[in-house]
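Hi support team,

I've been running sequence recovery on a batch of backbones for a student project. Most finish fine, but this one hangs at about 90% for roughly twenty minutes before it completes. I'm not sure whether the input is malformed or the queue is just slow. I've pasted the structure tokens below so you can try to reproduce it. Let me know if you need the job ID as well.

Thanks,
M.K.
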């Protein structure tokens, strides 16, 4: 087998894995959580794992790591305790740690604190995604990081101390340690839970034997809190090994809390991703089972060398609102229910202020209580009943009653559909009808809500995996939308191909014909394929409007 054939086979396997995983995730009806381990920090930041950190600071203290590990009978937390004691005097007396002492002397109250401060300082100095780290210098890893930043997830759980999750998901609210999570008003959306502490709070680090004993003693409370997530969301573990002792303890406690009757349901929500260092390894997705907490339950195990296809799947998921906005809305409703004002027998209609970078175009209005007829009349003007399907069918010319372009762009789409920045909604037809598209393709957005501009300027691109497969198998072989739709390829790939075809080989009418047909197809409109279909409709909408603007200019 040639190298090219081998690469092609691997690509096919990844494409199949991506399609299956996306369908599986969508079937749960809730967006996933990422449970991120030290493997990702090593991969993208070049940071050492727990063992590596202890080796480094044992050397700093002038002691033999292997001696301490052997004296602890191979138990890393116990070795960390003895290394911390050996490091204690150096931290307090060595000139190299003078600046750390000046900043932290008041909070270091025992023999373990100095090591925690030193580790936290070392991580903070090396955990930024800047030149010099693998996630920036290695182009393939930089591409993975770029795609991971666009992942559509409801939250992140991590045992890492570093700031990688903060850089990837800057709008997420972070909770550090068990105390912050358990005592907070966490809303379980657009949040990050750093359950082993964070380098920004050195004494929060779970590092030594005493730390792990305290963590373990309270693990049942943490498991109960996390059970809210596991009961409602698929959870993707990545950066861990299935043999990780402390991760297994968490899973065991969650399994115990769920009970034997619901273990199957729990297991179907768990996806465990393991990295294989072999560059030629072909991705494996399999159903297996693990035993935790005395119970055995099924999980989906994924083994892969590249994470690009995995992050690509997560980037294609959709949500109706940006996560940060949903979190704020949920928090306001939570506060209203848990802290009502006794003097009020009904809550007036309230407009929630959304404090989020991507919230400029969103207005969230809700009301609680018994409303008057006037209240209801006022509310009836908000949002009405416009659906995304109304706009799509109108753009394809199959809706019986056309939509008014001005109303649609100024209020219908922003207030009725409220698309996120990751959505695909056709808007060029209406921009053309309002004569806002110039012959050269430039668009006048003056006076329109910002979300319309974002939708109009969003690139219509296929995934990297589908593009590679198209170049390898389809380009020059299938040239028209009809040829693609009549092929034997899976539906998702047909829809991706429609975006990738050379536009010089077919007309807008050719594309519309197949899109109208596909729009009536249950398979094309299934949860696993609808995002691809919407992307193709936006391509048609854009091409048609730009072509009309150009033709009308030539006539004049």
């Amino acid at each position: 087998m040639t190298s090219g054939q081998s690469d092609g086979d691997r690509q096919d396997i990844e494409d199949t894995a991506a399609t299956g995983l996306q369908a599986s995730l969508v079937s749960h009806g809730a967006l996933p959580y990422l449970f991120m381990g030290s493997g990702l920090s090593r991969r993208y930041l070049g940071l050492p794992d727990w063992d590596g950190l202890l080796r480094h600071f044992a050397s700093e203290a002038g002691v033999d790591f292997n001696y301490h590990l052997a004296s602890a009978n191979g138990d890393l937390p116990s070795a960390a305790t003895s290394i911390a004691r050996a490091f204690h005097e150096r931290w307090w007396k060595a000139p190299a740690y003078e600046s750390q002492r000046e900043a932290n002397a008041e909070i270091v109250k025992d023999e373990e604190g100095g090591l925690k401060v030193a580790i936290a300082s070392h991580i903070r100095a090396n955990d930024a995604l800047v030149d010099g780290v693998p996630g920036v210098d290695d182009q393939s890893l930089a591409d993975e990081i770029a795609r991971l930043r666009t992942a559509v997830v409801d939250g992140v759980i991590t045992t890492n101390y570093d700031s990688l999750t903060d850089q990837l998901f800057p709008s997420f609210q972070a909770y550090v340690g068990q105390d912050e999570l358990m005592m907070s008003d966490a809303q379980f959306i657009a949040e990050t839970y750093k359950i082993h502490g964070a380098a920004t709070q050195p004494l929060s680090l779970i590092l030594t034997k005493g730390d792990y004993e305290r963590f373990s003693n309270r693990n049942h409370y943490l498991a109960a809190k996390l059970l809210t997530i596991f009961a409602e969301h698929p959870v993707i573990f990545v950066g861990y090994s299935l043999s990780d002792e402390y991760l297994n303890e968490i899973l065991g406690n969650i399994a115990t809390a769920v009970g034997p009757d619901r273990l199957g349901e729990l297991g179907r929500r768990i996806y465990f991703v393991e990295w294989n260092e072999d560059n030629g390894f072909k991705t494996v997705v399999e159903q297996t089972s693990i035993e935790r907490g005395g119970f055995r339950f099924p999980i989906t195990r994924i083994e892969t060398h590249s994470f690009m296809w995995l992050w690509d799947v997560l980037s294609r998921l959709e949500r109706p609102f940006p996560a940060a906005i949903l979190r704020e809305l949920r928090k306001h409703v939570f506060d209203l229910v848990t802290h009502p004002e006794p003097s009020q027998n009904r809550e007036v209609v309230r407009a929630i202020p959304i404090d989020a970078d991507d919230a400029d175009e969103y207005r969230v209005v809700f009301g609680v209580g018994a409303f008057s007829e006037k209240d209801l009349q006022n509310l009836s003007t908000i949002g009405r009943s416009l659906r995304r399907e109304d706009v799509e069918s109108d753009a394809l010319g199959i809706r019986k009653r056309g939509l008014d372009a001005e109303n649609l762009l100024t209020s219908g789409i922003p207030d009725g559909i409220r698309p996120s920045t990751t959505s695909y909604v056709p808007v060029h037809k209406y921009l053309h009808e309002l004569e806002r598209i110039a012959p050269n393709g430039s668009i006048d957005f003056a006076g329109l809500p910002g979300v319309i501009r974002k939708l109009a300027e969003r690139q219509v691109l296929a995934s990297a995996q589908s593009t590679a497969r198209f170049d390898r198998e389809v380009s020059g072989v299938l040239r028209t939308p009809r040829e693609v739709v009549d092929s034997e390829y899976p539906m998702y790939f047909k829809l991706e191909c429609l975006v990738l075809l050379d536009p010089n080989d077919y007309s807008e009418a050719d594309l519309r014909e197949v899109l109208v047909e596909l729009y009536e197809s249950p398979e094309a409109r299934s949860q696993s394929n609808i995002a691809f279909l919407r992307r193709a409709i936006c391509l048609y909408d854009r091409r048609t409007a730009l072509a009309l603007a150009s033709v009308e200019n030539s006539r004049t």
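--
Follow-up from support: It reproduced on our side and the slowdown came from queue contention, not your input. The chain has four domains: 3-47+128-315, 50-124, 323-379, 386-556. No action needed from you.
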